[in-house]
Amino acid sequence: MNVELSITEQCNLRCSYCYFRETHAKRCAVMSDEVMEASIRLAVKRSIETQDAFLNITFFGGEPLLRMDFIKKTVKFAKKLVKQNASKLKKDLKFMFSLDTNGTLLTEEIIKYLKKEKIRVTVSLDGPEKKHDISRLTLDGKGSFKKIKPFIPALVEMGAEVVSVVTPKNIKGFADSIKWLFKQGFEIVGVAQDFNGKWTSEDFDALIVEYEKLARFWYRSKKENSKIRLSLIQDKVSMAVFRMRQKTDGCFINTKTLVVAANGNTFPCTRFISCQKNAPYITGNILDEQSGVYKGVFPKKVDRFIHTDRKECAGCAIRQRCLAHECGCTSFYSTGSLDKVSPEVCTHERILCAICDEYALKLMRETSIDRLF
């Protein structure tokens, strides 16, 4: 069971590719103790009912480190509740916490706490200073890299994961930025794309060059039995080899996820999260006026996110590992609709899958299929 808590809508950065870049001024809600406690109670209740093997609570926002005291309060409450219900939960339940952060508010004290509680950290980092500061800016328009740099060694030691975003602004040299992250000692790096509707044919040509470089880097790393994981390549290869489907094997909507906005609104995915009363694809609110806890957090209408097949994708060989076909969240972000297919996303996925398959086959021919993983 995954519980994702947007503990604040506020953020101390103004990244150019943020989902909420147009609405920052209106985003000021913070999660109350009431909403937090109701969310944790429901998650534990569901974990007991389904005998889940794991319970993961993720803090995100906004920037969750703006509310460090609230994080500590939540951890304390959740640990106490899990302990009280230990006899009812699945034996050997894997209980953990995660944090998604931009890293700019880290301190030695916070690092010490995160280590003590074994909180898994995912940090947003786009590479060295010149690359990172292209898009990740402070409120006054300055680069944010210098605020993160002192804590990179500690993040590496903690086993933090990194997410980098590729945009038309930072394509050239993007492969070198990802390699730089691995050189710092990070072992897991994910890549997200800014599907903003502004990609040109020239941008995609440049992206092919960078993805080719990354695929060659991945290929060499696998030949050397390196422990690093470049999710951009690895995930597409794994889905092809094991005939996996993005909707059912790479998405927690299909299993058990509780996504809670700062005001208690619930959604199938963090991409939709909003405190608006009639937000698109809202599934309810964690607080119910009559019973105190919302009972319909996992309604049947969530099935639409899992089972919808887009007619225009029929016959496409890569459709089941393609974000344009499989991910309603990506469709919503890139087109404004759950059901539309973005030509931009489609082009990207065709490019990426072709490159991934080429280097996966090359690796298999020269070594063995085991080296793919």
Task: Outline the structure in words.
This protein is an alpha/beta fold. It folds into two domains: 284 residues, Aldolase class I (TIM Barrel), CATH 3.20.20; 66 residues, no CATH class. Helix content is 39%, strand content 13%. The protein has a ten-stranded mixed sheet. Helix 7 links the parallel strand 5 and strand 6. The two termini are 26 Å apart. About 2% of the residues have low confidence.
Task: Give a brief description.
The chain contains 14 helices and ten strands.
**Number of E-state strands:** 10
Radius of gyration: 21 Å
- Number of helices, where a helix is a run of at least 4 consecutive DSSP H or I residues: 14
What do we call the CATH homologous superfamily of the largest domain?
Aldolase class I
What fraction of the residues are assigned to beta strands by DSSP? Answer: 5-15%
CATH class of the largest domain: Alpha Beta
The portion of residues assigned to helices is: 25-40%
Architecture (CATH level 2) name of the largest domain: Alpha-Beta Barrel
Order of helices and strands: EHEHEHEHHHEHEHEHHEEEHHHH
End-to-end gap: 26 Å
Annotated CATH topology of the largest domain: TIM Barrel
Mean pLDDT: 90
Low-confidence stretches: 289-294
- Label the structural class: alpha/beta
Oligomer: single chain
Give the strand order of the largest sheet, numbering strands 1, 2, ... along the chain.
7-6-5-4-3-2-1-8-9-10
Largest sheet: 10 strands, mixed
